[in-house]
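Review form for a predicted model. The reviewer records the input and the model, then writes brief findings.
Reviewer: anonymous (R2)
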Amino acid sequence: MSDDIDDIDATVTLDDLDEEAKTLEDEDPYLSDDDFIAVIHRLSRDLRKASETLSEAEARFLVSSYYNIQEQRIRSFAQVTKLRERGSPALVVNWLAMQSNILEGQIRAALDRFSANHKFGKFPRSVVGIGPVITAGLISHIHLDREPTVGHFWSFAGLNPEQKWDRSQKRPWNAQLKVLAFKAGSSFIKVRNKPNDVYGKVYYEKKQEYIARNNNGGMVENAKKALAEKKYSRDTVAKKSYEVGKLPPGHIDAMARRYAAKLFLSHFWECCYRIEYRKAPPLPYPIVHLAGHSHIVSPPNFEEFMPDEILEDAG
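Model under review:
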C-alpha cells in the first residue's frame, strides 16, 4: 500500500567456536591441509547456522560493519592500483584488501542466512535490486508497535519532507535506515532495465513525469523553496536553475529515486504488517480523508510470497 506515496545447535556462540578451535589445536597441532580445510568449513557452517538467530541489534551492527568493511576494501584495492602504477610494493596493502574482501563476503553470507530465515525477509528478497544486506538492515529497523502506519516508518527513515533537524537537538530519524533507503533507491536505478524489475521502472517513469512538469513551469514553488532553504555562497548550476524557477537535473533525479524508495518501503511495511497482525493495514490518511487521493499500489507478486493462511486471514 502506498500513499502518494543447514543440523547443528542453533544456539552455538562465538565463544563455543573459539573453544572448539583451541581444543582441536591442542589435540593435534599438526593438522593436514585437508583436515584444516574441513575444520574451517565446519566452523563456517556453525556460524552460518548461528546467523539464523541473530538479534536485531546484532543484525544492525553487522550491516553497519559490512558497509564499513566494503568501503575499506574499495579504498585498499584503489591504493594497490596506485602503488603498482608507481612501481611500489603493494604486498601488505593487497593482503589487507583481500582480507577485507573475505570478511565482507562472510558477513554477507551471515546476513543472507538471517534474512532468509526471518518472517519479514521474503518480500524484500524477492525484489530485484534488493539483496540480503539491505533486507537484513530493514528487518532490524522495523518496529510495528512504534510505526503503526507507513507514514511513521517513512519518518523513521528520514523520508518525511516536513521533518526538520535542528542540529542542537536529537536527530528525528534513524541515520542508518535513511542510508539503507538511499542505497535501495540507488540500486533500483541500476537494475531498471532488468525484465523483472519493478521499482527501477517506477523511478524512471516518475523521473520523466517530473522532467515534463519542470519544463512546463510546474516546479516553480519547489524551486523557490529550495532556494530559500539553502544559502548558496557562489553561483552554481543548481542555484541558476532555482533562480529561473526550474529544478536542476540532480534534484529531479533525487526526487524520483526517493519516490521509488518510499514506494518500496511502503510495500515492505505493509507485508510486515500483514504477517504480524494477519490483517490488512489501515489505509493511508490521504486515501481516507483527502479528495483526489484514491490510488493504491499493492506490493508486487504479493500472492507468491505471502503465506496462504495470512492471505486467508487478510481477506
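Findings: Residues 55-117 form one domain.
Further findings: The radius of gyration is 24 Å.
Recommendation: see findings above.
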